[in-house]
Amino acid sequence: MIRAEGISKWYGRFQALYDLTFSVEQGTIVSMIGANGAGKSTLFDIITTLDSDFKGKMLVGGYDTRRQQSAIRKLIGYVPGTFSLYSDLTVLENVDFFANAYGCGREALYKMTPRIWSSLEPFAKYRASQLSGGMRQKLTLCCAAVHSPSILLLDEPTTGIDPLSRWELWQELLALREQGITIVMSTHYLDEAARADKVMLLDKGRLISYDTPEHLTEGEDSLEDVFIKFLERTDG
Known about the structure:
With 236 residues, the chain is of the alpha/beta class. The protein has one domain (2-219): Rossmann fold.
């Protein structure tokens, strides 16, 4: 569903990404991990067609991110790292706004995100500004999924939310994978990353490792141990 070929990115003289090549198969969950500044958000900008000023080639659903942006935007749902909905609108108004933008109704939510939507529905008339951090993230996911995308891109979706909301979100992501939805998410929670089908380890714009959690943790107690040992080697 996603194929990157030699992706490099500069901001002036600063190189943010170095020759990244990888592919993401349909119906899988991929977790990106890495310290701040590793290049995760930059990579999301390229995949979501927000940035076309890069070297290399990025294909999403078989479409080129530089030349076929409209087709790609119909395929993807994106949850950015910062809250990006309309704070003055209610929960329902936000959902309906995005549904109308995609020319659909909100009916897809009952299939795409039934658990999360059922927990949001009692707050349908609340303004987004009145919601807790966890509820805002739930609303953002619903708005990203309202048009039944085949690819979900989530930039640190569980940062700063309570454990119950994290669990609910992951239950929804696992159910979406069963529907064949492709999910790419960045996270600082290594216990979450270990639940993915594959883990992408980025460091200072370089792809260090891209493998299953099982292979990455061979001979180690956890993915956290792998990550810490890698950081110790690079810092030394």
